[in-house]
Amino acid sequence: MATLFPHGIVFDGFLYRIIPGGYAVIGAAALTGAVTHTVSTAVICFELTGQISHILPMMVAVILANMVAQGLQPSLETTPDAGETLLRKPGFSLSSKFKSFTMIYNTVI
C-alpha cells in the first residue's frame, strides 16, 4: 500500500498516510488472536498503540484469523484420546503407584 500510494490516500478531503508499522501490528494481533482463540488481543493491541484508526482493520483481521484457526482445529471426535493411545502402546504397564491411585479414584467416585 505504501508503494502504491506514497503520499497517502485522500478521503473526504483528508490525507491519510500509509504507515507500514500499522500492518505489522495488525498482523501480530491476528496471529496472536488465532493462536489463543481470543478476540481480546485486538483490544490489547489497540490500547498499546492508541490509534483509533487501526481498530476496525484489527478487529476484522483478528476475527478472520480466529475463524480460520477454528476451522483448521481438529475436532474431538477425530482426535484419539491421549490416555487410550498411551495404554495401547506395547510394553506399557501400570506401576503400583498408578494402581493405588486408580483404587483411590474408583473409591471416591
TrEMBL record:
A GO cellular component annotated for this chain's UniProt record is: plasma membrane
What GO terms are given for molecular function? voltage-gated chloride channel activity
Q: Which InterPro entries match?
A: Cl-channel_core, Cl_channel_volt-gated, ClC
Membrane topology of this protein: Multi-pass membrane protein
What keywords appear on the UniProt entry? CBS domain, Membrane, Repeat, Transmembrane, Transmembrane helix
Its annotated compartments are: Membrane
Pfam families xref list: Voltage_CLC
Which SUPFAM superfamilies does this UniProt record tie to the protein?
A: Clc chloride channel (SSF81340)
* Chief subcellular location: membrane
Q: Which PANTHER family match?
A: CHLORIDE CHANNEL 1, SKELETAL MUSCLE ISOFORM X1, CHLORIDE CHANNEL PROTEIN 2
Q: What is this protein called?
A: Uncharacterized protein
